[in-house]
Amino acid sequence: MDPVRKDAPPNPPRDDTTDDPADPDATRGFPPPTAVESLVNALLEAGPEVAEHVVRAAQELVLAAQAVVDAAERAVDEQKDLRSPAPEPAPPAAANVHPIDRTE
Question: Coil, strand or helix: which one is 44?
């Protein structure tokens, strides 16, 4: 009634260095591909139409992010203007002011 069988064969050692041509992820000595590498590989396999579509979508995403940043910058500038005291009016420039001679 022993739950662990003593006569069971041990697990065979796993050979990680085998090259299986059917498995592209089983490469000898290389780490698994990163997310960016996987994305680039998928785009290359998908074809130029898909790659062009993804590039255009990325451009639109960058433009949308730029619009959000610009709107936030305008909002911050408006808040600064509301919180800062009104500036003193500048005195008129001396070159624009001249005495009026009424005797002429």
Answer: helix
Give CA 100 to chain center in angstroms: 65
Return the SS3 of 50. Answer: helix
5: left (phi > 0), else alpha (psi -120 to 50), else beta? beta
Task: Give pTM, 2 decimals.
Answer: 0.43
Q: Which has the closest alpha carbon to 27: 36, 39, 12, 37?
A: 37
Tokens 């002429």 belong to residue: 104
Question: What is the distance between the alpha carbons of residues 65 and 56, in angstroms, rounded to a whole number?
Answer: 14
First to last CA, the chain: 130
User: For the packed helices 48-83 and 35-46, what is the interaxial angle rounded to 10 degrees?
Assistant: 130
What is the per-residue pLDDT across 10-52, written as a single tens digit (0 to 9) for each? 555 555 555 555 555 555 788 898 999 998 888 888 888 888 8
